[in-house]
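Long-time lurker. I teach an intro course on protein structure, and each term I like to show students one example going from raw sequence to a predicted 3D structure in token notation. This year I'd like something fresh instead of my usual example. Would anyone be willing to generate the tokens for the chain below so I can use it in lecture? Attribution to the forum is fine with me.
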Amino acid sequence: MNEDEKSLQEELIEVPLSKIQTNAFQPRKHFADEELAELAQSIRTIGILHPPLVRPMDGQDTFELVSGERRLRAAKLAGLEKIPVIVRHSSQCISAQAALIENIQRVDLNPIEIAKALRSLIEQFGFNQDTLATRVGKKRSTVANYLRLLSLPKKIQDHLNEGAITMGHAKAILSLEGFEKQNLLCEIVIRDALNVRETEEASHRIMEKAKKKGLVYVNRDIYLEQLAEKIQQRLGTKVFIQGKGKRGRITIDYYNLDDLDRLLQLFGVD
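-- Reply from a regular --
Happy to contribute to a lecture. Here you go:
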């Protein structure tokens, strides 16, 4: 039996949770507490309907999780000591690929998690973008677009990670060269709640302005950062202060009409 045939063989067994290790290539890093609690309650009631997939660790009496980390966490939360698993004999490389592919296809990963997982596969296993695209069932251009996200400033990656901007916004931001222009456009997108089309138009305007007379990027100094944070704590909402010389602008967010009424009362406005 060759390695390919061996890797296709599977068996269903029961394994102690203590003998299952998580997959280092699991791209999903955050699991909602409420989501896990609901699944744990379901597991207590009817058990695990779809056993996680694992592989035996070479020379050890343990298993590495290939897919199903959410079910594994929920099982621990439910107080189980053993769970049914599907054992597949596969290499670490195949396991890493399976963890990535299974999550991309079955879970809403954020773009940064996908990008980091793709980069890990390239760095760890030497895949080029063409090979990687074939393995994960994506176009090469799609893989390239995900990897480009990791060239964005950390602050913008965080916004994308948190859902403040979308992949479409990020692609438009990437059309600008230089962190200063990219950060400026990102701040405009969030401040003015631009859609992707409007972001692309704003990117074009910034490029044209930069070509004609150079872009003046206004940096927020430490004093303004600290002042904005104090106002945020006082008002209980997001505050942005932008200063240039003796002049500047303060932007205060509100999230619905009730929130606006609350702020107006704080300002003493009827």
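Some talking points for your students: The mean pLDDT is 82. Strands lie at 10-16, 20-21, 53-56, 63-67, 82-88, 239-244, 247-252.
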